[in-house]
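Field log, afternoon session.

UNIT: design team B
ACTIVITY: writing a sequence onto a fixed backbone
BACKBONE:
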C-alpha cells in the first residue's frame, strides 16, 4: 500500500473513531474548559514561588511572603479540587465511549453468519473486542485530552519562559526537532512490533479458550505434555515479540529523555552563570527551571501521542476487519425500502421454490433448483446422511443465510419480507450440541421466554422428565449450572434444552438429534410431550436414521440428490427437486 493510501486509510479510521466522541461533545467541552483552568492554575504557581524568593525572602518583606504563601496554598487547593472533578468526568466520558465502541462492534457481530464464526478463532475475536477496543478508547479520550492539555500547557509554559528569558528558551528548544525526527523514524518499527505482539497475544488467548473447552479430551488421550509443549512454544514466540517491543519502546523513551537532560543541563550552566554574575535573579532561574519542566512534560506527552498513533493504527485495523465483515442477511429496509410484513400468529405452509445455495467462496452447490412444500403443522422426520445439507437447510429456513436464487416462503410470503429477529423467534431449536448458559436453572429455562411463570417452568420440567433432577439441586430452580453445566450428563443437559424449547410459543420446532443421549423409555416419554405441546406447530425431527416407531406425518430425505418429501401414509414424493 502506498504512503498516501495508508494516510488516507488512517484518516478515515480516525474520523470513524471521533464519531464516537461527538455525542459527548458538550461534556468534552466542559472537561476541556476545566482542564484549561486547571492548567492555568498550575502555570501560575511558579510565579508565586518566584515572588516569595525574590520579592519576599531576598527583599526581607515577610508580609508579602505571607500573602504569597497563602495565595499559593489557595491556588494549590483549587487545583487539587479541579483535578478530582476532571478525573471523574474523564472516567465517565471514557467509559461511555468504550461501551459505545463495544456495543457497536457486538451489534455488527450479531448480524454475521455461522460461516464467519467457523472461520474465526474465538481467542482472536476476544482479543479484538477486549484489548483492541480498549486501546482505541484510550486513544480517543486520553489522546484527545493529552493533546489538548499538552498544547495548552506547552503554549502557556513557553510564553512564561519567553517572559523570563528568551535566550534560555531558545537553548531549551534547540534539541526538540531532533527528538521529533527520531520518533518519526521509530514509529513504523513500533507499529510492526505492536501488530506482531497483538497477534501473538491472540494466539495465546485462542489456545486457552480452545483447550479449556476440550480438557477432558486432552486428558482422555494423554496429550497433556503435547499441549504443554504447544503452550511453551507460544510463550516463547510471545516473549521474543515482547522483548523486541520493549527494546523499541525503551529507545523511543530513552533518546528523547537523554536529549531533554542535555537541554536542562545547558540551561543550568548558562542560567547559573548569569546568577553568579548577578545578571539574573535566583528566583527567576528557579521559576524558569520549573516552567521548563512544565514545558518538557507536554512536549514529551505530544511526542508520545504521536508515537501512540502506531499502536492505535494496529488496533483500528484489527477492529475494522470485524466491522467490515459483510453480513449475509440484508435487513428488509436495505433491500426495498418497505416495512416488514406482519408475521402470522399461526402456522402456515412452508415452501422452497427453485432454491439454489452454495457457501461463500465455494463453487460446490449444496442445493440446486430445489422445490419443497411442507404442509402446515406437519410432523416431519428428516433423514440426512452426514454432510448432505441438513444443517444448511435449517440455516436457510432460519435465515442465517439467504439462497443465491429462489425463495423460501411461509404462508405464501417470502420470508425476507418479515423482520429477521421476529422470524427467528418463531423457531424453537434444540440441536445435538446442547448449549446451556452460565447462570441458574431458572435463567436457562426462561432464556427464550423471560416472562414465563414458575408454574410454566414446573410444567415443562415435568414434561421433560426433570422433576427428580431438580429436586436434587440444593437451591432448586435457583441452582447455578456453571458454564454449559458440564457437571450434568448429556441426557440431563438435553432435557433442560428441551424444557427450554417447550416454554416458547413457536410456529416451528427443530429437534436435531435432540434426544440422542436419552434412553429409549425416557425418549419416548419426552417426545410424546413434545408432540402434544407442539401439536399446532410444524416440527422437524432430524436424525441420521429415521426411527420407524416415531409417528411422523412425512419423511424428508436430504441428500446430494436434493430434497424429497414422502408421506408416511402414501410413500411417494409429494415435493421434490
Amino acid at each position: 500500500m502506498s504512503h498516501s493510501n495508508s494516510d488516507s486509510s488512517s484518516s478515515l479510521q480516525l474520523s470513524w473513531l471521533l464519531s464516537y466522541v461527538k455525542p459527548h461533545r458538550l461534556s468534552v467541552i466542559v472537561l476541556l474548559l476545566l482542564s484549561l483552568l486547571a492548567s492555568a492554575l498550575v502555570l501560575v504557581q511558579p510565579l508565586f514561588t518566584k515572588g516569595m524568593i525574590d520579592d519576599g525572602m531576598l527583599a526581607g518583606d515577610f508580609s508579602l511572603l505571607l500573602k504569597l504563601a497563602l495565595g499559593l496554598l489557595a491556588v494549590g487547593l483549587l487545583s487539587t479540587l479541579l483535578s478530582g472533578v476532571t478525573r471523574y468526568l474523564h472516567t465517565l466520558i471514557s467509559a461511555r465511549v468504550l461501551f459505545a465502541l463495544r456495543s457497536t462492534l457486538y451489534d455488527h457481530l450479531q448480524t454475521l453468519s455461522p460461516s464467519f464464526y467457523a472461520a474465526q478463532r474465538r481467542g482472536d475475536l476476544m482479543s479484538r473486542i477486549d484489548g483492541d477496543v480498549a486501546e482505541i478508547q484510550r486513544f480517543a479520550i486520553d489522546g484527545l485530552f493529552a493533546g489538548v492539555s499538552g498544547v495548552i500547557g506547552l503554549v502557556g509554559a513557553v510564553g512564561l519562559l519567553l517572559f523570563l528569558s528568551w535566550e534560555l528558551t531558545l537553548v531549551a528548544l534547540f534539541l526538540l526537532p531532533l527528538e521529533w525526527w527520531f520518533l518519526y523514524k521509530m514509529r513504523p518499527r513500533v507499529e510492526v512490533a505492536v501488530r506482531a505482539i497483538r497477534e501473538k497475544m491472540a494466539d495465546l488467548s485462542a489456545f486457552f479458550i480452545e483447550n479449556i473447552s476440550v480438557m477432558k479430551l486432552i486428558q482422555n488421550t494423554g496429550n497433556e505434555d503435547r499441549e504443554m509443549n504447544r503452550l511453551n512454544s507460544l510463550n516463547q514466540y510471545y516473549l521474543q515479540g515482547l522483548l523486541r517491543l520493549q527494546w523499541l519502546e525503551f529507545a523511543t523513551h530513552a533518546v528523547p529523555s537523554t536529549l531533554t537532560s542535555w537541554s536542562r543541563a545547558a540551561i543550568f550552566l548558562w542560567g547559573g552563570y548569569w546568577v553568579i554574575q548577578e545578571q539574573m535573579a535566583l528566583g527567576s532561574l528557579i521559576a524558569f527551571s520549573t516552567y521548563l519542566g512544565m514545558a518538557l512534560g507536554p512536549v514529551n506527552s505530544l511526542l508520545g501521542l504521536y508515537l501512540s498513533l502506531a499502536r492505535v493504527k494496529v488496533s483500528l485495523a484489527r477492529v475494522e476487519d470485524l466491522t467490515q465483515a459483510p453480513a449475509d442477511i440484508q435487513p428488509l429496509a436495505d433491500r426495498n425500502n418497505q416495512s416488514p410484513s406482519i408475521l402470522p400468529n399461526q402456522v402456515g405452509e412452508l415452501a422452497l421454490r427453485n432454491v439454489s445455495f452454495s457457501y461463500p467462496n465455494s463453487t460446490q452447490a449444496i442445493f440446486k433448483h430445489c422445490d419443497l412444500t411442507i404442509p402446515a403443522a406437519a410432523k416431519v422426520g428428516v433423514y440426512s446422511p452426514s454432510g448432505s445439507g441438513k444443517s444448511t437447510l435449517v440455516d436457510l429456513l432460519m435465515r442465517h443465510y439467504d439462497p443465491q436464487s429462489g425463495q423460501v416462503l411461509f404462508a405464501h410470503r417470502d420470508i425476507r419480507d418479515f423482520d429477521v429477529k421476529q422470524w427467528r423467534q418463531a423457531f424453537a431449536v434444540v440441536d445435538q450440541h446442547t448449549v446451556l448458559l452460565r447462570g441458574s436453572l431458572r435463567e436457562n429455562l426462561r432464556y427464550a421466554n423471560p416472562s414465563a411463570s414458575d408454574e410454566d417452568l414446573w410444567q415443562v420440567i415435568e414434561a421433560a422428565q426433570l422433576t427428580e433432577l431438580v429436586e436434587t439441586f440444593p437451591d432448586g430452580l435457583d441452582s447455578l449450572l456453571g458454564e454449559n453445566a458440564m457437571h450434568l450428563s448429556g441426557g440431563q443437559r438435553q432435557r433442560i434444552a428441551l424444557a427450554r424449547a417447550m416454554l416458547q410459543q413457536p410456529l416451528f420446532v427443530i429437534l436435531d438429534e435432540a434426544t440422542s443421549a436419552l434412553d429409549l423409555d425416557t425418549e419416548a416419554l419426552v417426545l410424546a410431550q413434545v408432540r402434544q405441546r407442539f401439536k399446532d406447530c410444524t416440527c422437524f425431527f432430524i436424525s441420521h436414521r429415521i426411527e420407524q416407531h416415531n409417528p411422523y406425518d412425512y419423511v424428508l430425505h436430504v441428500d446430494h440428490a436434493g430434497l424429497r418429501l414422502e408421506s408416511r401414509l402414501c410413500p411417494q414424493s409429494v415435493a421434490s427437486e
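LOG NOTE: The two ends are 48 Å apart (CA to CA).
NEXT ACTIVITY: expression trials, pending approval
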